[in-house]
Structure formats: C-alpha cells, structure tokens
Amino acid sequence: MYGKVLSACLQGIEGQPIEVEVDISSGLPQINLVGLPDSAIRESVERVRSSIKNCGYTFPMDRITVNLAPADLRKEGSSFDLAIAVGILVTTGQIHMNGYANTLFLGELALDGSLRPVPGVLSMVHAAKKRGITRVCLAAVNAPEAALIADTEVCVIRNLSDFKNWNQGAYPNAIFHAREQLGDDLFENELATSPYIEDYADVNGQHQVKRAMMIAAAGMHNLILLGPPGTGKTMLIKRLPTILPPMTDREALEVTKIYSVSGKLTDRSTLMRSRSFRAPHHSISSAGLIGGGSIPKPGEVSLSHRGILFLDELPEFSRNALEVLRQPLEDRQVMIARARAVYTFPAHFILAAAMNPCPCGYYGAETETNACTCSPAKILHYRSKISGPLLDRIDLHIEVPKPSYTQLKDTTSNLSSAEMRHQVMQAHHRQMRRYAGTDIQHNNELNGRLMREMCRLTPDGDQLLRASFEALGLSARAHDRILRLARTIADLDGSDPILPAHLAEAIQYRKLDKNQRVEEM
C-alpha cells in the first residue's frame, strides 16, 4: 500500500514543501524514516504511534517506510508529525479526505493525539501557496498566522480524532480565511501615526545631532554617536524608530517570517508593522550576532532586518563579533555555509552605535570635576577595537557634545518626532519616485552606474570632494558613502541636484576619519 501527503520544512527563513511518502508492506513490524531526517523527526515515530492508538485508530503491524522527499535536503523539527500520521491513516484507509493531495499538514503531535504549534508556519504556508497548495491543516495557535496568506483555507486540527469528521463529509472544527490579503501583489501600507511612546520632543538641545538622525532615517544610513557619558547618546538612538518611514507590506512579510522562524512572533494574527529595534548586550558572541548553529538560525542582524541594530558601548564588544558585521553591512544579507547547504538570511538594517571617546569617557570634554585620566596609548588602544574597515561602512560619525544648563532647560525649539518624521517621509517619497521600477528603495542602496547617475556633482562640488578625499585619506568606499549621504541631504532639503552645501555637510559627518588621520600624523 502506498500513500502520499504534503508537509513542509524551513530552509533559512523560507519554507520548502516536502512530500511525505508512506509505503506499507508485509514484514516484521517496524517503521523506517528516510530522507535525511534529524533526531527530532526520528523521535516522531513513537509520538505518531501513541497518537494513532490513543485516538481510536489502529496502528498497522507491518513494515512501514516513510520517505521525506526531496531526499537530498536535510530536514529538522517536529512539524512532520501530523503529516506522517495522516499518511499512515490515509494509506491504511482509516480516514478518507477529499482533496488531501492538495492539503498541507503541519504540526507536532502529543501522545494523546492533540496538536501542538510549530515555528515558521508563515514561511511554510507562503511557500506552499506558490506551489498551488490551497489548504493547510494545523494547530489552533498557528491558524491566525497561516491565515495571513491570501486565498488559503486554514483548517484547525485540535486532535487526530478530528479527521473522523472528514469521513462523514464535514471539515474539522473551525476554518479561518485570510484577513489581510497578502498575496504576491503586495502594496505599500503607510501608517498615519507612530506606535511609539518615545518622542524626540523629550530631548532638549542637540539640534545638530537630531538633524543627523533625520538624515540617517531618510536614507537608512548607518551612524555612530561619539561623546562623553550623560550627553543623551542612548536616548537619541532609542527614539530613531519613531521617525523611520513605515514598512511596506513586502517588508512586513519578510520581517514577520524571520520572527516566525525564530519562534519570537508574539502576535500571530497580523504582520509586524513596527520596525524592530534590537539592542544586544556587549557580551554577545559572533554566532549570536550573525546567526549560526548546526542548522543555522537567524541572529541579531537578521532580527534587525528593516529596522535598527543598536550597539551601545561599541568598543566593549569583542573584536570578532564586530568584524562579522562587515559582510551584512555591505551585502545586506548573511550567508552561513555548512557541509550540506548554504543558508541565506536577510540583514538589511541600520547599524546605530554609541561609544565614549576614551575608556574613562571624558577625553575632549574635561571639566573641573571630570578630567580625562587616560594616557594617549590607552585611548589609542580603546579606539583600535573598532577597525578601519568597519568604520568605513558607517556613514555618519556624529559627535554628541555635553549640553549646557541653558540648553538642557530650553524646550522652545525642540522638534517632535512627528515633525521630524514628516520631513523624513517627504525625502522618502522623493526616493520612491526616483527609484520606481528598480529594486532600490533608499539612497544607502545606491551603487555602480545608478549611483553615478543619481549623484552627479557640480564642478564646485567635485572640487570640494577631491580636496576632502586627499586631506582625510578617504577610501573608495568612504567616497561612495559620502555621495549617498549627500544625495539624502539634498532630498531632505527638497533639492534635485546635489549642491556643494549638501556635500560639505556630508563630509563633516566623517569625524572619525579626520580624527584617525590626525592621530596617525
């Protein structure tokens, strides 16, 4: 006897439909799982056996072979339990289901036959829909998540006994239908209000730094804040999400997939609409930051996708952890190679970092009560923890000065997050119109021929950039990042051409390039 049902597994953050083939033949009673299953799948044999018996079915006392195809793809997790059980029951004729060949079965079985949720359902159902699979059977907890995919019939299975209803021509329990029509034609959904409590109106003074934060948000540029303790570096960065442009539906689907795969999805009934803000502790390992494991899982850079990765006290992170950021900052994705496969995770995020100028924190901002006690060698060693190649990939280097008492009490000229976000959105719309028909959304993605077209300079601007390039000893990468930054500044000012003033402002945000050049001399 032969039967086949459909299930799915995860490859990175994407789903992969899997055919679960069941062959039952005469022989000694045993069940063999083939098709590169991991230990969790091998253990499903006993869960399936107990579930079938405890739900009133008969487990066949024959030789059972279960093949997970394609056989050359490594599979993990407990999401195949339901498919294996249904495959055995269908093959032995104990249940009859109309259209089961076009149904996806996902879920982990308890010994009493009840169904438990599994991670990554959104990715698996989305992949199945692309293959023309229109129905999915899974646990009630996973149902709202699966129902986000349009035109998919979601059948809730609470227990294996529910399939007896199918024998009588009735569907099991409730059926969910998609509430957000998120098919292949995804469209931009702009939010009128910000969901955040923090507001830049709470930050007194630091007008120049706020301007830099707007530039970072408008073009999705990386930034680093440098200043003594207590100047508001962390406060400024924590409010950066309040002025970012809203995510499109496509971006929201990407982010929700990552959190679903990681088991960190809190609200399964809707896509994640707020941009993520991740702030790992400086003790984090390279694998925790970038992702990893025998079968790799997303790290902090992927959990920050389309959002912000905040590294506070940047020099306190291990050198190895910081250096692994180079590739995702450049390529906007993470590639983790294993013997059997290469896994790719998206990692398009804003790197927002903060650091003190020296170990004690007061270099360059000495007062009578707070004097720097660090030697030049100690300061150099402290700053050398951040390599030149990593600094090259950060667009804005911003000094955060200590505010005076007058500035600290002055609230008359404070820009609110709503006002700043309005300016950011205007620049964002200019970029949308400019890059319509391309894969580019923001200025920080410009490269090659398109960057030369969109970042043309006037003769005066070219002369200014040439002088700065030679004086600061800039790299070719820093040169390109200055051009992208100048393009964003021009967009914020509502200007089509990049003027010398825009270029001059972009150059002044390369503070650490200048400081390093001076120290070398």
TrEMBL record:
SMART domains in alphabetical order: AAA
Record family assignment: Belongs to the Mg-chelatase subunits D/I family. ComM subfamily.
Example GO molecular function: ATP binding
Domain (AAA+ ATPase) ranges: 219-404
Name assigned to this protein: YifB family Mg chelatase-like AAA ATPase
The organism's place on the tree of life at top rank: Bacteria
